[in-house]
Amino acid sequence: MGPRRRTGRAGACVIVVACVSGACAGQRAEPVPVAALSSSPEAAAAFSSIREAWADPDLATPIERRAALERFLSRFPGDGRVPFARVVLALVAMGEGDHATADAQLALTANLPPGSTHDLWTVAAARRLRLHDDPAGALSLLRPLVGKNVDPTVRSVFEDELALAALAMHSDSEDYEAISYMDAWLRSTAEEDKAHALKRVTELVERLPKEVLVGSLQAMRARRTTLGYGVDIERILAARLVQIATTSDDAELARILLDTDPGVISSAGDAGTHLGELATSRRGLNVVQGRTVGLLLPTESPALRDESADVLRGVMWALGMPRGVRSSAPVAATDAGAGDAPAPCSALEPAPDLDEPSPEDGLRLVTRDDAGSADRTEVALDELVGDGAAVVVAGLDGRTAARALQWGEAHSVPVIVLVSPETASSPETASAKSAHGPARVDAGRRGFAFVLGEPRANVLEALGRGAPLLLGSRVAPVVDASEVASYAPEGETSSGFAFGPPVSCDVPAARAGEPRFPLAMWGADRTHAWLVSGSPDCAKDLVGELSGAHARGVVALTLEAADRPERAAGLRVISARAGVVPSVSSNDPRESEVRRFAGALGRAGWWTALGRDAAVLARTALAKLPVDSVSEAAAVAARRTAARDDLESVRARLWTTEAAGWSPDHTMRRTICAVDATSR
Q: Quick check: pTM over 0.85?
């Protein structure tokens, strides 16, 4: 809907001094107009001092201005300026929320003769209606004054109240009407008052919704001659939209602004560069390009860089990228001890053999980096679908996983997250987690959300069953750098584990040759239980240092740290196990592919296995999609829905679980057990 043109010229419109009333905090006060002659020099002097105080807001507070008005009315009750002072006092009282006083003063001046003071009373009465949630009534009082030639010294208050009343209607038609009134205000303002008018209109424009601003600006630029809007209002609208686009990373809005005025980049100052980058990005585009998988990774985050690299290795392997990596991969030699690797925690579900990926599949991978910042999650996801992704893989931490799932539901895009979204990932959630246990996500209502990862509570429960000593001891958590903030510094209780202060896997040695981990502190605290959720290398380092110090107790490894490191006789090492992690037995049908992967890209840990499984599921689901691109809304929605439906029904042999497909609630069922490491 385009902007509605003003109903009359407000250039000569009227009425009261807004900031005289004190109702516009922070605005420049206009001089109080002379409504009538004073009855005495003393009254004139008193009113003059009041006018000077209002002209400069720094000279008096609103309370002081009200007191001055009340003194004037008390000292000079018969003065010719009393009606005008009463109306101004009503405006001041409304600014303070004192509606009883405002009503009393308006009642005393209700029968004024035509003139400036009566017009001022009309504005005050309109403001009273607006403040009592009757903007329609306010507009009915103010509209007859539009175009009326009255005292120009009170014009800005009338224009201000007229715009506020129109905005208070909260409808598109009145919003467009308000823009017309503001344009008239700017066009009719004298040069010496222009700065104040521009500032106030800029403030009012911030109340308008983006859609109204866009519609108005587009109409102004398309029909400059017929609509006749001024350059000032156009510049204010454009500046506000630039602000919205750059602060919210709204690429679609940036493209609209550049389409209507390519010169907006140069006029936007420092924001122009950002605006140009937004407009030329793929963010916000609605397209599905063939069989494209989107991958969101925090590769620039130091805390999650290793995990990102492992996930990417698994994804690339599953998609057959780079070409030939699978066909030319040497088969890794069997690891020492692999022959005695335990059987899977549960029998494998039947699953069809997985075909080798080939160029004819038309698979395509696009990636984005959110730098480990949850605030960039939605932006990066927008860019991935702008690049044509039909399925997105994301979520290496609980907070990002939760936001990615919400985004997927809101945009009807299938999203697979690698971490269960209930995992705490910030200090403020850690206390809630310890008090109430891990918060379950309502997976039953996820239409486009799929959770591949495993809730931490399930892993801890499996380790507790395997090593009951963990449940009766103070456990020292040794965690990845990205997890430190999710643990309370003084310790906490979760899933039956009583944790002490966390220690980062990246902790450096105090001096060369000394242990990296705080063995002395643990010895003094009589710590005999440890939980490692960092990498397998972190687990090996910890077990090695504890073994070298002849420590006794139990070291438990989560799936992220899962391994079977050698340990000293007095130390028990128990590792969580799921699927082929931490090792695959020789009679497991997945063993051949795991060994081929190891020969080409190195050992497959938990993160690698998650990446591989997510990509296998996505690749299989996309196999039925056409290879061409679509951008029409209905076609895009149909393909995303088809991808979701096929993803729900995928059956494939996975590395992280014995299951072959999703549970009805779009989570991945898996059995977790615990296995012991070998002794030296």
A: no
pLDDT digits (tens, 9 = 90+) for 13-65: 333 333 333 333 334 444 444 445 667 888 888 888 777 765 566 677 888 88
Spatial CB neighbours of 454, under 8 Å, sequence gap ≥ 6 = 420, 559, 578, 656, 668, 670, 672
SS3 sequence of 299-364: CCCHHHHHHHHHHHHHHHHHHCCCCCCCCCCCCCCCCCCHHHCCCCCCCCCCCCCCCCCCHHHCEE
What is the per-residue pLDDT across 663-679, written as a single tens digit (0 to 9) for each? 999 999 999 999 998 76
Structure tokens at 296: 């969101």
Report the candidate in 537, 657, 520 with the shortest Cα–Cα distance to residue 588.
657
Q: β-strand 629-630 against 391-394: which pairing, if any?
A: unpaired
| C-alpha closest to that of 213 among 188, 185, 250 | 250
Phi, psi for residue 422 in degrees, rounded to 5: -80, -5
Q: Are 538 and 478 in contact (CB under 8 A)?
A: yes
Measured CA distances, 323 to 291, 364, 679 (Å): 16, 12, 41
Residue 472 DSSP label: G
Q: Are 614 and 452 in contact (CB under 8 A)?
A: yes
CB 250 within 8 A of CB 386: no
How far is Cα 276 from Cα 266, in angstroms, rounded to an integer?
10
Contacts 24+ apart (CB under 8 A), 569-575: 569/679, 569/680, 571/543, 571/546, 571/547, 572/467, 572/676, 573/539, 573/543, 573/676, 573/677, 574/463, 574/466, 574/467, 574/674, 574/675, 574/676, 574/677, 575/539, 575/674, 575/675, 575/676, 575/677
